[in-house]
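At this stage, I put together one protein's amino acid sequence and its C-alpha cells, which the following lines show:
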Amino acid sequence: MASIGELNDFGVVDLIDLLARRKRSGRLAIKVAGQEVVLFFDSGSLYHVTSDDLTLRLGRMLISLGIIATPQLLEALHLQAESEPKQPLGAILLERGWITEADLTRCLEDQSIEILSRAMTDANGMFVFDVGVSAAQPPGTKPLDALALLQHARERCDALVKLREQLPSPATPLFLAASALADRSLADGLSAPEAMVVGLLRGGPKSLAELTSHLALDELSLGVAVVTLVVGGAIVTATSSAPAAGRRATT
C-alpha cells in the first residue's frame, strides 16, 4: 500500500519525524529540486538513504572525507563492475582493507545528513511511502537514528545559509594568488578539501560552479574550503588582483 502527497502540504522533516515516531517500516521516495531521495525504514530506524545525485555517491563521499584516494575508488568500481552477483561498493572497499567498518559508518551517516539537508531546503516536490518495502542493508552498517540525523541535517542547513552569504557568486572566477602559485608546498598545510581546490586552480581560474562540477565535495566542505582560502589570501576573486599566469589561463 502506497501513500502519496506533496511536500508543500507535508514537509520532509514532518514526514521523517512521523515515520520514526510511529516506528513504521517501508520505503520513502522524495522527489525534490530535480533529484530523488530514497529512505528505507525498519521499525522507525533508518538503515539506508540514497540519492540519484552523483555528487552524493558513497565513493565520492569517501574521497571528500579523505578516507580513500581516487585510484582506490576507480579500482573498486572496476571490481564492482566485474563482480557477479554485483557487490556493494562498501563491501569491496572493506575486503581490500582500504576502509574500516567505522569509516563506512561515518561516511554513510555523513552522506545521509547531506542528502537530508539538501532535500529539506526545498518545499516543492512530492513523496511516496510504500509500506513494507525493504532494501538490502549495506554490509558493516548499523541502523541510523532518524531523529538524530534530522537534527544534524537542520544544523547543516543553517550552516549552509550562513556560508552562502560569505561565498562569491557561482559564476565569479576564482584565481590562485601569485604567492600561492609560487608556493609548491602550500598543499602540505591544507585540509583535504582545500588542497583539492588549490590543485584544480593551479590549472587556471575556475568559478564556484565549475569547482562544484569537477570536485567530489559536498557543498558545505567545498564552501568552507573556498572561504578559508579567500580569507587566508590564497584565492583572489577580482580579475584585477589575479596573477598574470591566471589571467593568461582564461584566454
